[in-house]
Amino acid sequence: MRIRNLYRGSWLSNCYLVSEGSDAVVIDPSSSAEEIAAILTEAGLTLRGILLTHGHFDHILSLDTLRDATGACAYLHRGDGDFPADSGKSCYLGFLGRDIRHRAPEVLLEGGEVLTFGALTFQVIHTPGHTGGCVCYRCGDSLFTGDTIFAEGYGRTDLPGGSWTALQESLSMLTGMQNEGLTIYPGHGPACPLAEAAARL
Description:
- Helices cover 21% and strands 29% of the residues.
- The chain is α/β, with parallel strands linked by helices.
- The chain has a six-stranded mixed beta sheet, with helices on one face. A six-stranded mixed beta sheet has the order 7-8-9-10-13-14.
- Helix 1 packs parallel to helix 2.
C-alpha cells in the first residue's frame, strides 16, 4: 500500500491518496480535483471512493468537483451527513464568510463497517467529539484520524457538533489501541506512531 499526502503547505487539511495496485481512495479531498485527477492519471490509478473523516469545510473543498471528475462516491458518517449541504455546520460561513454547499454524500456510515475498494480494505471507527460524525479509517497498520487525534494534540470541540465528553471517550478508545503498532495519518500535521501521539495527550 502506498500513502501520498497531497498537502501543499497551506493552512488547509491533509489530503491522502491511498493506493494498492491500480486501486485508489482519497481521504478528505482538500486538494483540487484537477491536481488529484492528474496524479491518478499519471500513476495509472482508478479512484474507487472518497472517504470523509468528518464534514468540516477544510476537508471537503473539492468534494463535488472530484466526484464529477471521477465518478467516485463519497462516504461520510451519518452524524455529519447534512454538513456538506449546510454552510453553517460545515463552517464555510464561520471561517470564510461564504455560503458554499456540496451535494449530500452517496453513502452514510454508521461506524463498524468494513469497506472494500478493489485491493484496499478500510475499517470504519466512529470517534465522535470534534463533530458527532467523526470517524477514523483503519487500513492495515495505518489509521487515518482526521481531526480526532494529531501527532501533538486533538481536535477542538467548540465548532458545530463538537462535544468534549465524546472526544474524551474517543481518545480513550484510541489510546487503548496504542500497542497495535499503528501509525496515525491525521487531518493536520505530520504522521506519527499512535503510541507517541497517545503519550502526549
